[in-house]
Structure formats: C-alpha cells, structure tokens
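Figure-free illustration: sequence to structure, shown twice.
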Amino acid sequence: MDLRGQVEKEAAAARAAVPALVDEAVGAALETAARLAGERRAALLEANRADVEAAPGLDPGTLDRLRLDDGRVDSLADQLAVMARAEPLERDAASWTLPNGLQVEERRIPIGVVGANFEARPGVAADVASQLLKSLNGCVLRTGGAALRTVTFLVDEVLRPALESAGLSAAAVGLVRSADRQGARVLVSLPRLVPLVILRGSGETTAELARLAAGNGVRTLAHAEGGGVLYVHSAASREKALAIAEASLDRLGVCNRLNLLLIDRAAGDLGAELLGLLEQRGIAVRDELGREWANDSNPSQVTVCYLGSAGEAIRVANDESSGLAAAIVTEDEAVAREFLNGYRGTAGFWNATTRFTDGFALTGAPETGINVDGTPGPRGPVTYRDLWLRQYRVVGDGTQAR
C-alpha cells in the first residue's frame, strides 16, 4: 500500500471509531494511558534514545525538543492524568424559545477526525491526542521523522492499549507511520476524512502546508511562529527585570521563550545588566527585527532593541514579532495598562514571563498548539475546550411557518 493509501486507512479507521467515544470511557482511557506511560518508562526512553542517536547534527533547540528524560516522562504522564480528570466539555451552550414557539438549543458537537502535524517533539503526541480524545474527536498524528520511534511507541504501547482497556477502538488514535514529509502533504489533502489539521513547526514549512490544505478544502489551526517579547520600561524594578529575563530563557527550544528584548533608553544601567545576563548564558545578541526563533537554525540568540517610549514598544511588538506573546516589566501601572491595551497578540503579561503562554499553565489543559491567527476562532493556546463545531437544534410543534 502506498503512503496515501496508508494515511487514508488510518483516517478511515479513526472516523469509524469516533461514534463510540463517550466522556466516561475516554476519561478511563486517559487514566490508563498515564499509568502505562510510567510503567513502560524504560522502553519509552530506549525508543527515544534510539531517535536521538539516529539524528546527529541537530541544532540545540531541536535536540532539546526531541529528547525525553525521567522528568519529561513524569510530566507527560501527569498531564495525561490531569486530562483524565478534567471536566468534560459542556455540550449545551445555550437555549431559548422564539416568539413563534420554536425551541432552540445551541450545541457543541465533535468535529470527527482531526489531523496533527507537529515537530519532532514526542510529548506533543500525548498532548494532542489527549485533547482530541477529551473533546470526543479521533485523530491522525504525524510527527517529524526524528521522533518517529518515540511517537510510534506512545501510540502503540500507551494510547492504543489504554483505549482498548476502556472498551474503545484503538484506531481512534491514528498515526502516519512514515518519516517521509509527503505524509504531511497527504494529511492535509483528505477533506472528507480529515476536515481539520493542526499544524505546528517552522514557519515556511507550516505556511506551505497551510496553503496546500486550503487548496484541498481542509481547514487548519496553524502554530508556525514563536518568540516572546519582553519590554523593560524605564520604571522597571531591576530585580524583577533580571529575574523575568532569566526565567524567559530557561529553555531555548520552546516557542514562548524570550526572542525580542526591548529596552527603554531611559532604563539606564539596567540595559547593560540585561546584556550581561545574555552573555553569561551564552546567548548571542542580534539587532535584526522581525525574525522568529522557529525560522533559525540556531535558537541561542535574542534580538535586542533600544527604544524611547511604551508606544514605540507596542508598535514593535505588534509589527515586528509573531504575535505570540509580549510582556512588560514596570512599576508604573498606567504604562502597563497602556501596553496591555495596545498589544494585539495572543497573550500579554505584566511583570511575568511569556513562558506562561501555554495551555497547561494558563488553563490546566495541555495545548494542541498556539494559534496566532488574526481572525475569529480559537486563538492563543488551543485546548479540548476549543475543538468542537456549533450546531443548532430546533424543536417545533408543527404549526410554525415562515
């Protein structure tokens, strides 16, 4: 069977499994998946070691995203357990009666099968699958080739056995079982089977897939750009500014870390101290605005820009970044409100790091990705609470007519 046939088979099987998904059984399956991730830790880490060893020459950020360790396996299992216990999505959104007596209910119904194409980051497989199952959707996963062994283990030895243990079909979680990038192109070309695909990864690759999906009649939720903005105002606390900058750089291979540092010219010696902090951490300074870490082969860089006002910082944050997240450090509440009110990205922070731009951190549910689109729809961290279709149900008594 060719690659397209394989993906179609996985998608069709997931679609057939969807009608049996119910809240109680899905919760039980996710609880079991959390337990299996812990019990099968050694084999999971061995699969991951094989992936890491087979992928020499990766840049530091990509390698950081690929590698699992005991702590990350614990986090993966914990998030599955949290999802198991999370409140099911409320299906009844609203109800009302029209003057003619028609009773109208607004309902949230499952999408069906949702595809997900994501970077070589194994934990994303569990995050995305758990979100989609929790919203009573099936899924077909496609990971970067470097993580295929690890993700295959998670699907075949953790998620699918857990589904079966709860009386559900293992096929509800499908997988593109090929490292060939053509698998992603196939996934975004099946509108009848997979009407929505979540896209994560580097900017140009994701943009190309989004264009291909649009041409095939497939909708996408794209998470293509990363990079947080930090504006250090002249009224910033020195201690807070340094602490937040450091906290924003704890991991370089994540989308919400510090990418663009804006320093008020009136901040005095604090600017030099911030540059010293970057130097101590081995992070290169650049002055080219508008480039995101996701498009760079070396993520160990931060763009630094000096400016003269909060208004200028707002403009730069809006026009020269991805729109993912921006933070201001200041003790001046009026300036903080000005910055937050003017910023148009998905998350704004005052005296806090953009590293909290994360579904689990903000909402208690792991995200499928962070959508930075400037159009109506789920924006920011997308979780199971966003993955539904609106449906109206109308009941009459046979007497109503237009």
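We now fold a second protein in the same way, so the two outputs can be compared directly.
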Amino acid sequence: MKHQKFYAGFVLFIFPLLFCSLVSVDLFAQGNTQVSSQLEKAIQLYNELEFEKGLSLTRELLKEEGINDQDSIAVYSVMSMLTYAMGTDYLRQAFQYLDKIAQIGPCKVPLPNQFWPQQLRDQWYDLANARNALMCTGESDPEIKTVAIMEFDNYSVGKYQEELGFITKGLADFFEADFSSISSLKVVERDKIDFILKEIELSEKGKVDASTAVRVGKLLGAQLMIFGSIVQLDKNNTKMLCKVVKVETSEILTSVEREGKPEYFKMEKDMVMELAEKLNLALSDDTREIIKTSGTESTDAATLYAKGLFHMDKYDYKKAYEYFKQAYDMDNNFVEAKQKMDIYQPLAA
C-alpha cells in the first residue's frame, strides 16, 4: 500500500512534467531519489526531442541497486514513451517496455497513465486483458461507485446529423472529466470502454443498444452506466437527454434533460450538477468550482477539441495536435485542450 501511494504521487506529478513544464518536486519521497532525479532529466530531454539521450539515462537507471518494482515500472513507462516518440520503426520496442511492466504486475500501480499517447494506452489494455487484469481487483471503498459513460447518440435530423457528429464524442469526454472530479465516483476511461466494444466487435456496427452497453458495464466492473443523446431540429432548438442506469438490474435510476438553444456544453454543466444531486453525491465547494470552470462554453472550441479526440483515437497525432491547438487558441481557458495539445506536440513534431 505504501508503494501504491508513492506511485500515485508519481502519476500525478512526473508525467505532467512531460508536457506542462511543472516545477520540479520530490516525486520519489518514498522511492529511489536517484531514479527520480534521472527520470526528470530524461523527461526534459523528451520535451527537447532528444529521445536517444533520454533513453540512455533510463537504461542506466535499471542498473541501480535496490530498484523496486514501482521504480522499475516508472522507468519502463518513460522508456516506452521515449521509444514510441522515435517513430514507427521503434513501435515494437516501445510495446516491449509495456510488456515488461505487465510482467512485473499489471495491477501493481494504476495504469494506463492518462498522459500516454493513445496507441500506448490501447496496447496496455490489450496486454492487461490478456492477463485478465483489465479491471484490477483489490481493496475498494464501498462508498465509491464505478461509473461508465457511453458516447452520446445523435438523433438530430438533416444537416445536424452530420454537423454534430463530433460533438457527441466531446460531450462524453466532458462528462467523464466532470464526474472524475467527484471524490465518491470512479470513472471508467472512455478508451477502455471503446476497447471492450471492439473486443466484442460492436463499435463499428452502428449504435450500441442499452442491453449491450450494460453488458459492457458489467465487464468493466461498473455499478452505474450513463447514456446521453442529443436531438437538434433547427439552429435554435435542441434537446439533450441523459439517464443513469444501474448495471446490476438495468434499472433506470434517474434522468435529466434540457431544451433550448444548442449550447451543449453549458447544458452539460447543468446536467452534471443535477445528476449529482439526484444521485445524492456530495459536492464540495472546490468540486463545484472545478466542474464550473472546466471545459469550454465555446461550441466551436469544443467541436475542434472533439475532432482532436477523433484523430487521437486514429493515432493521427499531427491532426489531433492541430485541432487541440485550434481549440485552445479559440479559448485560452480551455485547460483540457491545452493538456492534450502538450501531450501530442512532441509526437506531431
């Protein structure tokens, strides 16, 4: 448990250094300080596109005496990213570092890291699934519920069916981010849901019905599933619906809806707050402020962000970066767009 707490600190602080140039902190207070120092140097070299030099540092770390499993996982994580950034010729080697992590133990630390590029994340899901460790079991707080959020359906008519195609992906991402800020919830990653859908060969065959989605929720260990949809009839009128289903019984626990101007991301904030109230989820003032200020109120910026997510999922990092950057340029308070932009800038270069 001590090492798990240590690695949680690593996840929260060391990987943002890859992209956000955060102030250096003592990340390995419970680990190997030499490993910490060298990883920070390797990460800086990653930012500078000096991937080979970064790898040279990380290889030396594995020779350190007394390096434990958590330290090794941290090193292999950085090595995988450095190698992956070198191009397709190094893809197999980058995956091999992930396999080394899986051999140490896929559930020793929380993975995948949110700052891994999409292909590394997908490869990790494949490795974990092969070891029946896609959902790690262990000590869990009974007060914390696991929730899975499905991609929203678009039931709009005419030109809005096509124009809003990307919005539905962005809405699910925003709901995921906002619900993740609530301490009494554990949110299943969007791409993990996509992985399961592909495993049962459904993601490319149109809409996923509620019964199948609930089946996915059971596979992911979720207690709650959230479904959403939008219906836009003209430029001034839209309807947005969101419902919560109890996975065990397929019972609809509650639902919320909004009608009016197609200001989807303002609606999303209101619906998150109302769902939290209906589900008796306690929200601190800080959490309310996080939910209120996250994301963007600009539909254009949100659409660009959603297009970035689409290309990110296709591993087209250059286009993904361009869309994330456009979204951030349009709204400089759009933190999620800035974060994604920084993640994929080295890979786009």
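Summary for the second example: Residues 167 and 303 are 6 Å apart (CA to CA).
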